[in-house]
User: Which sequence fits this backbone?
């Protein structure tokens, strides 16, 4: 509907409109769904203890790894949300990108479990250790993976030192921007 609306305005030259019409917007939907999944996970895990957050992380990983298996009744809502997100994402995601996403979302979930553990122990991290954990809790790596779900980017490219450093620097910029707004919470 949004694309039809924009086209109805005749705001672009015909050649530009044809190019716009060729865009694969599935990635936009999956990206929005991931952000909403992050919001859901964040809202629930920010108030849980380490044991509760670990259980929630396990539910999310099980839902992602078993996207076609019905979720148990009365399970935490994050399982259903993760399953539906991943079901839609895998409709066009390549095998390498699926593996990369599962690996990076696991890093994210492990980090939020550590964050819950730190919270339960009233641990205040120094700047270096804060950034070390925050690089995973901010969710940049899974989000970047979603950007390339339809591509066959080999792990050797993702792990190349230059790409890894660029990813780290981009993540640090996102952390600083995000945490200036929510410093007292983080």
Assistant:
């Amino acid at each position: 509907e949004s694309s039809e609306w924009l086209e109805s305005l005749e705001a672009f030259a015909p050649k530009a409109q044809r190019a716009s019409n060729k865009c694969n917007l599935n990635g936009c939907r999956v990206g929005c769904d991931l952000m909403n999944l992050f919001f859901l996970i964040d809202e629930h895990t920010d108030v849980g203890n380490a044991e509760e957050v670990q259980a929630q992380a396990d539910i999310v990983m099980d839902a992602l790894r078993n996207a076609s298996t019905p979720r148990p009744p009365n399970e935490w809502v994050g399982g259903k949300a993760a399953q539906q997100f991943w079901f839609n994402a895998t409709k066009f995601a390549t095998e390498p990108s699926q593996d990369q996403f599962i690996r990076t979302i696991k890093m994210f979930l492990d980090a939020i479990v550590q964050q819950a553990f730190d919270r339960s122990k009233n641990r205040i991290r120094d700047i270096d250790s804060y950034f070390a954990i925050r690089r995973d809790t901010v969710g940049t790596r899974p989000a970047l993976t979603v950007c390339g779900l339809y591509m066959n980017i080999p792990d050797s490219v993702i792990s190349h030192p230059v790409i890894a450093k660029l990813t780290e620097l981009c993540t640090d910029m996102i952390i600083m921007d995000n945490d200036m707004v929510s410093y007292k919470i983080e």
About this structure: The chain has one domain: 26-182.
